[in-house]
Amino acid sequence: MSKVATRFAPSPTGPLHIGGVRTALFNWLFSKNQGGKFYLRIEDTDKERSKDEYKNQIINSLKWIGINHDGDEYIQSSKINDHIKVAEELLITGNAYKCYCSIKEIEEQKKRAKQRKLPYTYNRKCRGLEESDSNKDTKPVIRFKSKTEGISSLNDLVQGNVEIENITIEDFVILRNDGSPTYNLSASVDDHQMNITHIIRGDDHKINTFKQIQIYNAMKWNLPSFAHIPLIHTIEGKKLSKRDNASTLDDYSKIGIMPDALRNYLLRLGWSYKDKEIFTLDESIKFFNLEGIGKSPSKLDMSRILSLNEHYIKNIDENDLFKHLNEYSELCKEKTDPNKEEKIKKSLIFLKNKAKTLEDIYNNSQYIIFDEVNFKADDLKLIDEKSKKIISDFNIEISKLEEIKKNTLEAIINDLIKNHETNFKGVGQPLRIALTGSKFGPGIYDIIISLGKEVVQKRLSKII
Fold first, then answer.
1. 3-class SS at 154?
2. Tell me: the pLDDT tens digits for 298-353?
3. ∠ CA(379), CA(381), CA(385), 5° rounding?
């Protein structure tokens, strides 16, 4: 038996979709579990819509989430001559034919099918046409001569036995009239030449699979195994499209979702292993199998993604968390000041409390990152005369301390609560606004200790 080889074959006509990422992940995990190879094929034959920026986004997205392909990227457009040769061979063996129907005729057929509320299939008018009877003024397309009788069946590794009546598969075009190959021809030739043993893709490709199997059989090639995974739906149950929010990896990295958390989520989106929820990378490879993939569509649940991300934030080593935060800061066009690194690292133990995303941590750490406090107008209004007196009294008391510790701060704040006949919020809130610019954020003791006596006094003095 051939060594397992899988592939992910996106078209660079737009950013990589979250459904595509999951397909790539399942292919990658299956090949690694089986000790095989995983290849990335860029299907760039649509020259008008294919762009390098999308190709680069696809490659970078897969790297970001931890999916690394074997060997160089396989560029489909460089193999077009091979695809054309196969089309010509299919013509010679009688498995394909030239179709001279004009665009106008095809449009008429489509119009009639629509009027009868039937799906359009080509009427096979040119299937038995002699070359001498053809319309010499029309440049032909080449169509594959599909089976017209019987039933084809597929032993799908996810869906089980799938059957289709052959008459429903039209004589599909394999070469356009400009000589360019179509998807089903190119994909079949590439998969054969790449020695792909397992094709794992969305179940919207089922009809393509039956077409491609016919090409394989006509060419007498060994068939790969097929697995069709259910699509991802929105929380409302609709098919997820590229137009939906949070449909690309960029949408997730921008709000501070960590790659490990998203990969873990996508692994569990339509796949299960016992009752296990959290998987390390090694565990993902060790336990992944096709038997664990469900047959029903999965719903993309943002609340679950945030919950998993929070779990990873809480449990990750602080040095690793800082690296992720630093990358996120660069994404926000804000490089971390090297002089602030140690202060931020030490503060992560409380900055990550209640944080669901790196964005939350980034926002909570603004008061450390930036020397100038950026006050929120509504919060600044809360600093009335009584608040200024509390801030002033606190500043006097803190100046007497040689070292700032939580117990000494608690004593000062308790005295202020008593002397000003207020509560903890009455003292903590004006101090937090003065030091961070907002009434929301980390605990007041954590803020003061993380800033240090000198910075605290400087900021309080400005408010006073």
1. strand
2. 999 999 999 999 999 999 999 999 999 999 988 876 777 788 889 999 999 999 99
3. 125
